[in-house]
């Protein structure tokens, strides 16, 4: 009898818990970031030398890879060699990697850029407004934007992103 009571409680708990975390589909779409197929929000940020860089500067000319990162994020730092490789290998195919550091001091960012020999421009999102516009929830977060300004990849893996990139540069 006790076992039947425990089974009943367990089943009711599983059903209850299974229904608790469900979110309407519309809410999920707006909470996970910029959707693939959407137009990428334009932004203007200063690089570490103080030069203003806008996403629209690349429109019609380059495929852009945005890498949202921070120095305290070890997966972000481990992705740097792969992003350096992508910048080098795809530069002649009109691809530009842009690192977007989120809310860290320019001195800290410059130190990390030198230490890890980052071969691509680093932009400073000092107030986190661009990360907020792109609804970044975890880093590193890579956004691949085609020449028309459309998001073609939004995720965390440089390797998966490169598979999409290869199709765009053909």
Q: Could you please describe the fold and organization of this structure?
A:
The structure is a single chain. By secondary structure, this protein is an alpha/beta fold. The chain has a single domain (2-168), classed as Glutaredoxin. The protein has helices at residues 2-20, 25-31, 74-90, 106-115, 129-133, 158-168; strands at 44-47, 52-54, 63-69, 95-102, 122-125, 141-145, 151-155. It has a 7-stranded mixed beta sheet with strand order 2-1-5-4-3-6-7. β3, α3 (74-90) and β4 (95-102) form a beta-alpha-beta unit. It is globular.
Keywords:
170 residues, alpha/beta, 21% strand, globular
User: What composes the largest sheet?
Assistant: 7 strands, mixed
Relevant CATH superfamily: Glutaredoxin
Encode the helix/strand succession as letters. HHEEEHEHEHEEH
Would you report the number of β strands?
7
Quaternary structure of the protein? single chain
By DSSP (H or I, 4+ residues per run), the number of helices equals 6
SSE class: alpha/beta
CATH class: Alpha Beta
Spatial arrangement of strands, main beta sheet: 2-1-5-4-3-6-7
Question: From the 3D coordinates, which CATH architecture would you assign?
Answer: 3-Layer(aba) Sandwich
